[in-house]
Amino acid sequence: MMAGPLSDFRKAISKLSRIDKNSADAARARDAVLTKPAGALGQLETLAIWLSGWQGKHPPSYDHPQVVIFAANHGVCDQGISAFPQEVTLQMVGNFESGGAAINQLALAFGASFSVTSLELDNPTKDFTKAPAMDETECANALSTGWNAVDENTDILVVGEMGIGNTTVAAALSAAIFGGRGTDWAGPGTGVSSEGIQHKAKVIDDGLLRHKDILDDPLKILQCLGGREIAAMVGSILAARQKHIPVLLDGFVATAAAAVLYKANPESLDHCIAAHVSAEPGHGKLLKAIDKEPLLSLSMRLGEGSGAALALGIIKGAVATHNGMASFADAGISGEKAD
Ligand SMILES: Cc1cc2ncn([C@H]3O[C@H](COP(=O)(O)O)[C@@H](O)[C@H]3O)c2cc1C
Ligand SMILES: O=C(O)c1cccnc1
To answer: Which Pfam families match (predicted)?
Structure first.
């Protein structure tokens, strides 16, 4: 094993916690006796069983849902790859702090705690077409920030981001991890034109070429082509795994963070559900590559954890029905007729 700033994270990825089969079995057994035809609550049933297994307890809980979002700036914005200027990242952090963003309202609607963590907004990462975006220590620090943001008593975690330029970064990571060129993964993001998308694709190709020698190492891909908020999301998803906390994945950018872990160890996302598929065209493709079916498809394309926060409502419904419904025996209702 390579020593160095990233080695603790490499170790964590190679020693993942496992699902608690006893809790999942207990949930499956209770699900089978609830007052409904078998399977009639569809994915709400499988979600309750999945939650129990990954929370490592039965019944599953929805007492402390947590939304964590991370904000950072990207040197690759110098290449003119976003419809918005970089200062919007800081301005939106102000909006998150005063409760005015979409994610604030969604977290509030589903009773989740909310925090935003800024990662050196006045010190963008390096332009990945010219140099590694981060050095190993910077990348490890961002991973640690994400790791430490996850509360011990969280029962379901949403991770999200704010960082002008980060759909270009997510597309570069996707291409580095799963192959293809910039045109396969670049999309409009905040709203660049079709020429803008072509330009993004070229910038991504330049980055892939510059870093061609490290493309077999997912954490080096993160360091060279990623960003601080994306590394922080990687750290949070990994911390959640070690703390037995299931995770809802958001859009293209959050899923690109998750894909770094998938590339390192495909089992590392078993505690994660894809909450939605974003309208950003690369996202559906990326979900297929990590073998995840999204719960929702609502043409959202915001980031901030917004699609994942919306899916908290589904998780809340799954826990409420699983934990609160009567069994056939309790309610004195006749079971299914024998053939
Ligand atoms: C006002 C505003 C609020 C946002 N909230 C999330 N994003 C999203 O858009 C950005 C990525 O798009 P691109 O790669 O095209 O820059 C990220 O900050 C992402 O979180 C926003 C973008 C804007 C402009
Ligand atoms: O799907 C996303 O994560 C996304 C899409 C557009 C802009 N920002 C984020």
So the answer is: DBI_PRT
How large is the ipTM? 0.99
Stretch 64-76: mean pLDDT, rounded? 99
Domains of the chain by residue range:
62-318
Catalytic residue among 45, 138, 161, 304: 304
Give the CA angle between residues 129, 131, 133 to the nearest 5°.
90
- pLDDT tens profile 174-193: 999 999 999 999 999 999 99
The first and second tokens of residue 192, run together, are 């660049």
With b meaning 16 or more CB within 10 Å and e meaning fewer, what string describes 290-324? bebebbeeeebbbbbbbbbbbbbebbbebbebbee
pLDDT at 338: 81
pLDDT bracket for residue 1 (50, 70, 90): very low
Cα 136 to averaged position of ligand 1 atoms, centre (Å): 26
Tell me, using a 6 A CB cutoff, whether residue 253 lines ligand 2: yes
Q: Which fold has domain 62-318?
A: Rossmann fold (3.40.50)
Measured distance CA(118)–CA(223) in Å, rounded: 18
Ligand nearest to the CA of 91: 1
C-alpha span between 46 and 69 (Å, rounded): 27
Q: pTM of the full predicted structure?
A: 0.98
Distance 232 CA to ligand 1 centre (A): 17
Query: What are the residues facing 158 on neighbouring strands?
Result: 67, 248
CA distance 59 to 266: 28
97 annotated active-site:
no
